[in-house]
Specification:
The complex is a heterodimer of chains A (113) and B (116). Chain A has 113 residues and is mainly β. Chain A contains no helices and 11 strands. Chain A has strands at residues 4-6, 10-13, 19-25, 31-38, 42-49, 56-57, 64-70, 73-78, 87-94, 103-104, 108-112. In chain A, strands 2, 4, 5, 6, 9, 10 and 11 form a 7-stranded mixed beta sheet that branches. In chain A, β5 and β6 (56-57) form a beta hairpin. Chain B has no helices and 12 strands. Chain B has strands spanning 4-5, 10-14, 19-21, 24-25, 32-39, 46-52, 60-61, 64-69, 74-79, 88-96, 105-106, 110-115. In chain B, strands 2, 5, 6, 10, 11 and 12 form a 6-stranded mixed beta sheet that branches. A 4-stranded antiparallel beta sheet of chain B has the order 3-9-8-7, with no helix packed on it. In chain B, β7 and β8 (64-69) form a beta hairpin. Classes of the chains: A mainly beta (113), B mainly beta (116). Chain A binds chain B through residues 9, 31, 33, 35, 40-45, 48, 50, 56, 58, 88, 90, 92, 94, 96, 98-107, 109, and chain B through 4, 9, 33, 35, 37, 42-47, 50, 52, 91, 93, 101-104, 106-109.
């Protein structure tokens, strides 16, 4: 079974703090993704990566950066957290096969005070 | 324009009844894939079912089936014999060749509540 894990289920941070969200997958997937989920807006793509050290902006990259130094790990970084970044963050991974779905981690609920 | 539209913010269904969750999509690509995910209150997104644009048969997975109407650009999820554990958010998503790297576009979701 595919397993995608995220470093924290719940996180509380203060405005201006630097925040790291870690995601690890164990299926040797090439692609990894970071989404944020807000009520009424569904999932919106922040960044994705299709290979080590490669990254591409998604729909809402402002205020975020990412790092992929190893194939299995994809980190989301909030350089200076703001209250409007309070959200649910979901990591996903997939292979490059055509019919392959994305597999999601359990999510991190981030509260920025 | 929205790539995926789910017009039902919330739905109720009686236990053991069937329910249809609507999804319409928009793409100019001929090759695309449609997905449905379930998100319980725990937060994890669970993959339910997949339909490829060239698949001739509607996809089925146990109690889940996808009513794929290509000309109407709709991909409705049908859940038969609803169970209390089906209460969750349901998201429709699409991947097309234009998006690259297997990116998915998600709808805003439908919250399904199963009534005992």
């Amino acid at each position: 079974d595919v397993k995608v894990t995220q470093s924290s289920r719940y996180l509380v941070k203060r405005t201006g703090e630097k925040v790291f969200l870690e995601c690890v997958q164990d299926m040797d997937h090439e692609n990894m993704f970071w989404y944020r989920q807000d009520p009424g807006l569904g999932l919106r793509l922040i960044y994705f990566s299709y290979d080590v050290k490669m990254k591409e902006k998604g729909d809402i990259p402002e205020g975020y950066s990412v790092s992929r130094e190893k194939k299995e790990r994809f980190s989301l970084i909030l350089e200076s957290a703001s209250t409007n970044q309070t959200s649910m963050y979901l990591c996903a991974s997939s292979s490059i096969a055509g019919r392959e779905t994305q597999y999601f981690g359990p999510g991190t609920r981030l509260l920025v005070l | 324009a929205q790539k995926i539209t789910q017009t039902q913010p919330g739905m109720f269904v009686q236990e053991k009844e069937a329910v249809t969750l609507d999804c319409t999509y928009d793409t100019s690509d001929q090759s695309y894939g449609l997905f449905w995910y379930k998100q319980p209150s725990s937060g994890e997104m669970i993959f339910l079912i997949y339909q490829g644009s060239y698949d001739e048969q509607n996809a089925t997975e146990g109690r889940y089936s996808l009513n794929f109407q290509k000309a109407r650009k709709s991909a409705n999820l049908v859940i038969s014999a609803s169970q209390l554990g089906d209460s969750a958010m349901y998201f429709c998503a699409m991947r097309d060749a234009l998006s690259g790297a297997n990116n998915l576009f998600f709808g805003t979701g439908t919250r399904l509540t199963v009534i005992p």
